[in-house]
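Batch queue: ligand-bound targets. Current item pairs a single chain with magnesium ion. No template structures supplied; prediction is de novo from sequence plus SMILES. Inputs echoed for audit trail.
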Amino acid sequence: MRITWGVDAAAKKAGQTVPVAWQSASAINGHVLLAGMTGAGKTYQLRRVIREMQATSDGPIRFHVFDVHGDIDIEGASTVLFSEQTPYGFNPLRINADPHFGGIRRRVQEFIATMNRAMRSMGTKQEAALRNLLYDVYARHGFDPGDPRTWRIDDQAARLLSDGTDNRLYLDVPLGEKDEAKALGAKWDPGARCWHIVPTEYHGAITRWPPKTVARACPTIEEVMHYAKHILEMAFLGTGMETITALELTNRAANAFQRKLLEALRRGERAFEDEKLNGEIDKCKDKAIAAFTGYVQSISSGHELANLLKYDSTEVLKSVVDRLENLHATGLFKATPPPFDVEASVWRYNIRPLSMAERKLFTLFRLEALFAAAVQRGEQPQIVEVV
Ligand SMILES: Nc1ncnc2c1ncn2[C@@H]1O[C@H](COP(=O)(O)OP(=O)(O)OP(=O)(O)O)[C@@H](O)[C@H]1O
Ligand SMILES: [Mg+2]
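Prediction returned. Tokens below.
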């Protein structure tokens, strides 16, 4: 493969014409830096370079163009726009099922390393807490770090139960926990035989149940974030999931009463009573107390608290939750892969709508994945991929 750049300027002064070219056969490394003022012709040259590389390549070649200005139009390129609004992204928790190059441990390690590179570096305690969280969430999805047979999933089948057009998020609620799900606002779909809520209401205690998928799927950043928040609450209160749910319901009931009370005061009523709501609050309180008592009573091995604290102190956990929230807030790490055309030689990632920090995050995570795939592919006789 060859890229011609022009002619040697010094030689030209001496009246000679010496072409300057980059040749893959003799190049020491494959990196090129094009620098110039705005309008100097960098984008123009980039287009020309891609055309020339395509023309002189020895086989199929894939170009990845990270287009920060959104102006690198290339003929025949497959372009995907990445923004908070588009549904596509890359799930950084997707597992490579190859027994030698993939697996849970490697994914967790590389995910943490990339996070450290893209954001402020984590301390060893935070890293350990995040590692434990990730292993737990993978385990919840049936992935066993020691058993490569569990790493394989069917990407096509592993979709959400709803396609998103019915404004329903189906939840994986075990039979024994249906009353709690109902109390938290979930509705039963007799056809699908599954509980569901409005997707925008998926926060708080209800996130203890993951979204229902048709087949086993990889976890997402959002799930890890919700899971981490629950652990944080449980560790903070020294209790279990039922108590957290009961506390949230009590708070909701009290909140409803407060709202009514304020409305009554605004109307000028002096004495406000609502027997039904008061009864509701008392019922919720009793349940919360029972849940707390139940948790304390269930302590049997003496490791219960230590189990929660394997994620370290609540401060460490809180800082990990903050990071996951920041990562999730970028809206980049979605489970739906971008619809790039596999036939197209040039894949153009239009990342113009993203902020500076998001572009960096996106590019680093994408480069990490491309690099891992290249390592797995091993040495090739010719260039197959250009970034
Ligand atoms: N070698 C060239 N021959 C003819 N036209 C050129 C050449 N190089 C650049 N141009 C033209 O000059 C204009 C600016 O070039 P280009 O967009 O590539 O600049 P740029 O360095 O990418 O600028 P920016 O930093 O603003 O993105 C374009 O209209 C382009 O078509
Ligand atoms: Mg340009």
